[in-house]
Amino acid sequence: MRGLSAAQLHDLWLLMREAAEADILPRFRHLGAGTVRMKTGPLDLVTDADEAAERRITAGIARLFPGAVVVGEEATAADPGLLRRIADADLAFVVDPVDGTANFAAGLPLFGVMAAAMVRGEIVASIIHDPIGGDGALALRGEGAWMEQASGARADLRVAEPAPLARMTGAINWRYLPEPARGRILAALPRFATTWDYRNAAHEYRLLAQGFAHVALFARMMPWDHAPGWLIHREAGGYSARLDGTPYTPTETVGGIILAPDRESWEVVRALMD
Asked: Which residue, of 64, 72, 228, 238, has the fewest CB within 10 Å?
C-alpha cells in the first residue's frame, strides 16, 4: 500500500495553512449577517469560512494529487454519495475545513483544520492544524506522529500512560449516544477524574496524542471528524476500537469509538456503558 511521502504531507499541510490564513482567520470574530447558516440543527453550522476554505483545499489537492478523490464535509452535505467513493479510491482525502464550527461562529478559539489521506479505505497520512497556534499534529502510517511548528521545529507525540479510572481524564461526547448507553455513561462521569466536551474533535485528538488526556468517546462518526485524529492517536501509541470492539474504519459512519492509552483502559471505559 503506497501512502504519502513526508514531502507530500508537508505540501498538504502548507495548503491547509494557506486556507487558514486566507479564508478562516480573517473571518474569525468578523462574521456578518448571513455568513452563518444552520444545517441539521443548532450545533451543526456552516459559515462562509468553512465553504471558502474547503474550496481552496479541494482545488489544491487536485493540483498536488491529480485524480485523487476529495471528500469534504461541505461537499458531502450537498452530495452524500461522495462518502461511497472512499472505500475503493486509489487515493482519497477527507477534509474538515473548520472542525468546531459552532465554536468558530461563537468567537471561541477552539477549532481546527483536519485532513486525512486514504488508499482504498486505509488511512495513510493525516494532519490536524490549529490556525490560532499555527502548529500542526502530523502522522504517517508506520512512521509515527509528531507536533510541528511552522518553523520546522518538531516533537514526537506520545499518548498518556495508562491510569485507573479515578485518575483518567478525557473527552466524553455523549450527546449523540442512543439510550440506554447514554444514560449509563452520564451516570458514570463522576467516576473519572474529570471529563469535558470541547465541541471540537481536532483539539480533543491533539490532547490525546500529546498525553494531556487519557480517553475520548465519540458517537458521531463522520470520517472527516475522526480519520485524521485516529491515525495520529494510533501512531502516538494509543489503542482504539468502535463501541462493539471492531477496528475503526473511515468507511463506517455509525457505531461510535473509544480511544485510550491501551486495550485494558479501553475495556474499562467500554464497560461503563453496559
From this structure: 64
Q: Which of 96, 121, 156 marks a domain boundary?
A: 156
Kindly state whether residues 103 and 24 are assigned to the same domain. Answer: yes
What separation in angstroms does the CA of 96 have from each of 72, 130, 157, 270? 6, 12, 22, 28
Q: For residue 246, give its domain range.
A: 165-271
Q: 171 with 196: CB under 8 angstroms?
A: yes
Rg (CA), the chain: 18
**Euclidean distance between CA atoms 183 and 165, whole angstroms:** 18
Mean pLDDT score, 224-253: 96
Provide the pairing of β-strand 92-99 with 112-119: antiparallel
Which phi and psi (to 5°) does residue 4 adopt?
Answer: -90, 150
Are 103 and 213 part of one and the same domain?
A: no
Model pLDDT, residue 36:
83
* pLDDT, mean of residues 244-263: 95
Residue given cell 467516576 in the structure block: 191
| Domain final residue pick, 133, 156, 179 | 156
First to last CA, the chain: 38
Q: Are residues 12 and 138 in the same domain?
A: yes
Band of the pLDDT at 164, cuts 50, 70, 90? very high
**Structural contact between residues 16 and 24, judged by C-beta atoms closer than 8 angstroms:** no
Phi-psi region of 113 (alpha: psi -120 to 50; beta: other; left: phi over 0): beta
**What's the rounded mean pLDDT across residues 146-171?**
97
C-alpha cell at 240: 482504539
CATH number at residue 108: 3.30.540.10
Q: Alpha-carbon distance 261 to 163, whole Å?
A: 9
Average pLDDT estimate for 102-118: 96
* Same domain as 146, residue 236: no
Same domain for 127 and 23: yes
Residues 121 and 208 in one domain: no
